[in-house]
Amino acid sequence: MWKKEDAKPQGVTEISTAPVGTANVGSSNLNTPGNAQVSSNAAACISQGIRIKGEVSGKEDLFIDGILEGKLEMGAASVTIGPNGKVKADIAAREIVVRGSVTGKLAGRDRVQLWNTGSVVGEVQTERLAIEDGAVLRGKIEAGKPRGNRSDIGKSAAVGGESPKAGSVAAGTAI
Question: pTM score, two decimals?
Answer without folding.
Answer: 0.62
